[in-house]
Amino acid sequence: MTPANVRIGDETIVIGNGSWGRFRSIVDDAVVLGNHSTMEEVHFAIGRNGRLRIGDYCYFTHAILLCDFDVRIGSYVIMGFNAVIADSDFHPIEPALRVLDALACSPLAGDRARPPIEQLPVVIEDDVWIGPNATILKGVQVGAGAIVEAGAVVTTDVPSRVRVQGNPARIVGVV
Predict the structure, then answer these.
(1) In this predicted structure, what is the pLDDT of residue 106?
(2) Cα dist. 112→26, 109, 144 in Å?
(3) What's the total number of domains in the chain?
(4) Which of these, 6, 89, 96, 115, has the minimum number of CB atoms within 10 Å of its CB?
(5) What is the mean predicted confidence (pLDDT) over 110-131?
């Protein structure tokens, strides 16, 4: 069942039983999907304060969208199998804070607060192709017309109309 704070555009379809299983956002219009898009088996893991915007004419298949803060995706974007976008590390990096975080996430935690976790927006501009198993991490902007090759791990901004590949992703050509 689609959450009440999700807006789905005209002629957009969301296919898949598990799409909203990790949806936790309490903000108005937490997810806005544009028109004429297909979200096939997309996993929307949206945190309590997360906001996700996806433009028109997009096609995502079996993608994973991890959004605790802000993810903005333009129009005419394609995402392949198992591609991931994450606007947060979703856990502290420092070992002692990771233990506190694990305790806070436990079903036995009660009202224990989680430690602060860095969150930075992710922006994917128009006409971007994101290949299978690619990962785009927090704070990254992918420019219009760029291609993120299969398996790439993107940790820094990608200029418009270039191809990137590798871990970490590097420019390997122009489009």
Answers:
(1) 86
(2) 19, 5, 42
(3) 1
(4) 96
(5) 93
